[in-house]
């Protein structure tokens, strides 16, 4: 094991995959000579050559379209889009072609590809660099959507995504790239796609989250513990397929649920989790499900960004409303 931050763990996962399988290729804007906008692919072109770590034009639709062709032809491409706000030109490819190829071809073809995309705010960037529109992809049939929150999970989930027979949109929380370090297993370390993780056991309220906001949920749980409240923390890790049973089990256990996400409130993953809880644990609930989200506005610029992104204080306030319910 080695201590790594998330950017290093993702680089290690890509290095491991490239070394193990000649079918794995990386493509995207500046992924080669520059090493990616967040340096996640740093050093890989030097190690594996420009035919396996490919710098592309600034053309997101073309990047994903090329990756689809590569996947159908038998390769295992990993495409990088620099920011989630830049991915919208590629949404046509992802929804209309990548997610449908297995069904459209009557299972004769599949698209074992990964689209890596940094997402979320918290670094003082402009709107297109700070978006959390993950619900668009989770709503798309044929696409798996994965969001790691820790370095070890980032490596394990990325290696699982590369090995998966179907396409995966792999969302990387920008705020976490270099925020934390932890021990990351060497070699072929994998984490199952579709399984949530109980990060912290609790009995009074369930805090459900993923990505960068999971750290805020942890700080909220610490603050609640000072008041004698035992908070359970669930990291969803995969948004599609979402682990219904983990959410329902926690809701039945604590009777109170707070879902904290960074995205816009309307039709968010928080809305879906709330619906799952109502359907599967209604008679166990002691209070309505609380949603802590971003607002239904464009992500603001740096000076007011902290008003948009849910923080520990808003999560604590929601938990206290649930406890009073």
Low-confidence stretches: none
> What is the overall number of helices?
12
Strand content: 15-25%
How many separate domains make up the residues?
A: 2
Can you characterise this structure?
- With 325 residues, the chain is an alpha/beta fold.
- It has two domains: 2-184, Thiamin diphosphate (ThDP)-binding fold, Pyr/PP domains (Rossmann fold, 3-Layer(aba) Sandwich), CATH 3.40.50.970; 197-324, Rossmann fold, CATH 3.40.50.920.
- Helix content is 37%, strand content 18%.
- It contains twelve helices and 14 strands.
- The protein has helices at 6-20, 44-48, 60-72, 88-98, 101-104, 134-138, 151-163, 213-226, 244-254, 269-281, 305-308, 312-324; strands at residues 2-4, 24-28, 53-55, 76-80, 114-119, 144-146, 168-173, 182-184, 197-200, 205-209, 231-235, 238-240, 257-260, 290-292.
- It has a seven-stranded mixed beta sheet with strand order 3-2-4-5-7-6-12, sandwiched between helices.
- Helix 1 (6-20) runs parallel beside helix 7 (151-163), helix 3 (60-72) packs parallel to helix 4 (88-98) and helix 9 packs across helix 10 (269-281).
- The radius of gyration is 19 Å and the shape is globular.
- The termini are far apart.
